[in-house]
Design brief:
With 289 residues, this protein is an alpha/beta fold. The protein has 14 helices and four strands.
Length: 289
C-alpha cells in the first residue's frame, strides 16, 4: 500500500512541471508496470491477447482498447484514418467498423508489430471505470442490449418487484459472474479487468496514458510518436455533475463490506499494475446488510 501511495504522490508532484516531466512519469509508469508484472507472475497470463489491439500501419501506431477509458476518441482517430465518415463513426459499432480496415493480428504478428510501431495503452482508475460502465451501459438505457441486461440483472435480485438496477445489484452480478465461471475472463469488455483485455505484462508499450492526466499525456504521446497534426486531441467524454468523490460515496456506500472486499479482489491486479490506490473507497462507510 505504501508503494502505491508513494507512486501516486510522485505523479502528483511531477505533474506540476513541464512536458519533460511527463516523459519521466511515463518511464516511471512503465518501470512500475514491469516490476508489478514480475511480482504478479505476468498477471497470470501466458499468451498475449490480440483481440483488442488496433494497428495503423500507415502511422506505425499500435493501440490496445480499454473500454471506458477514452476509446471513443481513439476510435474516432483510427476510423477517420481508415476513411470512414463521421456519420458512419457515429452510427455504426466502432469496433466492427475498425475491424474492416484493421484486422485482428495473430500473436506472432502482433508481437512483431509491437517491436516496429509506437505502442500505447490508455488506463483508468479501476473503480472510476466501473462507475462509468455502470452509468453509461446499464443506467442510461441508450443501448438495446445493455437495456435488456440491466432489466435482467434487476429481476435476478428483485424477482417480485418493479424498479431500476442499483450499483449494488451491478456489483453483485459481477461477483456472481466471476464465482460461476471461476475466472474474470468472461466479464463484459466494459468492466473486464485491463489485465485480461490487454495482457499488459506480455505487451511492450512505449507509453501509458492515464485518464486522470489525459490531455497532458496525449500531447506528449503525439510528439513522441511524431503524429502532430494527425491525431485529434479532443477528449470525447460525458460531462458529469458529480465529483469523483461524490460518485464514489453515492455508489460504494450501497455495498456491504463483503461485497466491497470481493469486488476489490477482482480488480486488485489492475490497481497494482498501474499504480492506483483504493484508499478513498476503503474509507467510505459500507451498508450493514
Amino acid at each position: 500500500m505504501m508503494l502505491l501511495i508513494y507512486f501516486l504522490n510522485y505523479e502528483l508532484i511531477r505533474a506540476r512541471f513541464g512536458s519533460e516531466s511527463v516523459v519521466d512519469i511515463n518511464e516511471w509508469r512503465l518501470d512500475h508496470l514491469a516490476k508489478a508484472c514480475k511480482r504478479r507472475n505476468n498477471g497470470g497470463h501466458t499468451n498475449l491477447q490480440p483481440a483488442f489491439y488496433l494497428h495503423s500501419k500507415n502511422h506505425s501506431l499500435l493501440y490496445c482498447l480499454v473500454f471506458k477509458a477514452g476509446t471513443s476518441s481513439w476510435f474516432y482517430n483510427f476510423n477517420s484514418w481508415a476513411g470512414f465518415t463521421d456519420y458512419e463513426i457515429m452510427h455504426v459499432d466502432n469496433l466492427f467498423l475498425a475491424r474492416k480496415f484493421y484486422p485482428k493480428e495473430n500473436r506472432v504478428t502482433l508481437m512483431n508489430s509491437m517491436e516496429h510501431s509506437f505502442s500505447f495503452i490508455v488506463v483508468r482508475h479501476p473503480f472510476e471505470r466501473l462507475i462509468s460502465a455502470f452509468e453509461d451501459r446499464l443506467v442510461s438505457m441508450k443501448n438495446a442490449y445493455y437495456s435488456r441486461m440491466s432489466r435482467a440483472i434487476y429481476h435476478r435480485y428483485h424477482p417480485n418487484e418493479g424498479g431500476n438496477i442499483s450499483f449494488r445489484d451491478f456489483v453483485q452480478f459481477i461477483i456472481d459472474d466471476v464465482e460461476y465461471n471461476n475466472t474474470t475472463l468472461a466479464l463484459d469488455i466494459h468492466w473486464c479487468p485491463i489485465n485480461n483485455l490487454c495482457t499488459p505484462c506480455l505487451a511492450r508499450y512505449d507509453f501509458i496514458v492515464k485518464m486522470e492526466t489525459y490531455a497532458r499525456d496525449v500531447q506528449t504521446l503525439v510528439k513522441a510518436a511524431r503524429l502532430e497534426g494527425v491525431v485529434r486531441l479532443a477528449h470525447v467524454n460525458h460531462v458529469r455533475k458529480d465529483s469523483v468523490n461524490g460518485l464514489a460515496a453515492k455508489y460504494f456506500s450501497q455495498l456491504t463490506q463483503r461485497q466491497f472486499d470481493m469486488l476489490y479482489s477482482i480488480y486488485e491486479i489492475d490497481f497494482e499494475l498501474f499504480g492506483y490506490s483504493a484508499d478513498m473507497y476503503f474509507q467510505i462507510p459500507k451498508a450493514l446488510v
